[in-house]
Amino acid sequence: MPTVITAISSSESEGFIAGTLFAQGWSVVFRAIDWDSLERFINANQEVARGALLLFASDLPGISKTKIDSMASKIRQTIGFSIDQQKDGDFVELYAVPQSSTDLVSLVRGFVRAPMVRGANTPQRAARKARVIAVGSAGSYTGCTMLAMNLAMELSILEKPTLLIEGNYRAPSIAAYLAMRNINSDAQWKTIAPHLSLAEISQEHAGTVDEFMDRAAAEFEVIIIDLGSIAGLSNRLTDRRWTSTMTTWCCDQADELMIVSRADQLGAHRLGQVIELLQSTSVRASLSFVMNMKSPGKRGENEEAKFLNSATALKPIRIRSITKDSRAIVAAEDEHATLVEINERSNVRKSIALLARELKS
Fold first, then answer.
1. pLDDT at 234 exceeding the cut of 90
2. Are residues 349 and 221 in the same domain?
3. For the chain, how long is the longest CA-to-CA vector?
4. What is the C-alpha R_g of the chain?
5. Starting from the edge strand earliest in sequence, which strands make up the sheet with 196-200, in order?
6. For the chain, which end, N or C, has fewer CB atoms within 10 Å of the first or last residue's CB respectively?
7. What rounded mean pLDDT belongs to the chain?
8. What pLDDT does 181 receive?
9. What's the pTM?
10. What b/e readout covers 200-210, taking b as 16+ CB neighbours within 10 angstroms?
């Protein structure tokens, strides 16, 4: 995790910035009150400084652009904030202090991931007509991909132009489930059913995710993204590797992050780990939870009670459960098809169809 040095005179702004980053698990190693104290610390702790982010403000006594430039080789990178900056000041591209902890964390994460391509303003969620829902797995074998595929199909049946995106770089599965090839053709996406298209973001396209999503949002009403496992989320949000691109985009820009967990004991344990992580990790996307493979009868009621008790801690926008139906799932996998194509009356299909109608409204 990044280490941080602050150099901000305003106690209110510095307290907000340092406190927010500390709550995310980042180490604030020094809090300078003027330029001289900052310079002394950096010169005396050169190894620490080389790996640190310097968050400075224009109100720091003794600061100037020339002095900041002279420190560039001694620190990892800098992020500047404007606090009562004079109109004729020599700083350029300073950021306004974010109004929320989520915006601050998103800004700093962006510098950690790609410091040379940051804009001049605090990043905001893009305005779009499409609703973007990312589906992530709290552990392994939760049925995350199954849910994403069938949710997309159900929305298309409701005549919602829908794009299903394979965003699980580590273990892409949608093409294998549907027995499809050449998803990454010259076209941006491939039509696979009425009102339903499929796309895959590969390493080749990871650097242009923003542009791709802008085009997709202009074309479709709903975008479903299969992220796969979101274990270790906080580390991936500051990861510069291309495999974390879609996850970081979704946490910053998606309307909803739907977290899928299994109903068994291991699933409950993995869900608890993800919830604990999310309690100290700021994301812009609204959270929702789905417990998959709920057992029938009394056992299922106990599973659901434990699930609700865990999930409500994060105040999600929705909580749903899907009853286990192994026969329908296996039949769909064998036929490389969605549930509605195999057995539209199965309980698992009905549960997903109900969720789709809720998302449509």
1. no
2. yes
3. 72
4. 23
5. 190-193, 196-200, 162-166, 222-229, 131-137, 256-262, 286-294, 318-323
6. C
7. 86
8. 73
9. 0.73
10. bbeeebbeebe
End-of-domain residue from the set 83, 117, 151: 117
* CATH number of the domain encompassing residue 29: 3.40.50.2300
In a shared domain, residues 337 and 201: yes
Look at 280 and 211; give whichever has higher pLDDT.
211
pLDDT at 26: 82
DSSP state of 125: P
| Coil/strand/helix, residue 221 | coil
Residues 361, 358: Cα–Cα separation, whole Å:
5
How many CA atoms does the CB half-sphere of 18 hold within 13 Å?
19
SS3 240: coil
Which of 41-55, 120-134, 346-360 is the least confident region? 120-134
Residue 174 in tokens: 């949608």
Three-state secondary structure of 48-109: HHHCEEEEEECCCCCCCHHHHHHCHHHCCEEEEEECCCCCCCCCCCCEECCCCHHHHHHHHH
Any residues with CB less than 8 A from the CB of 57 and at least 6 apart, and which?
Answer: 7, 8, 9, 10, 13, 14, 80, 81, 82, 83, 97
Residue type, 122: T
How many domains in the chain?
Answer: 2
Q: How many residues does the chain have?
A: 361
Structure confidence at residue 137 (pLDDT): 95
In this predicted structure, the answer to whether residue 115 has a pLDDT above a threshold of 60 is no
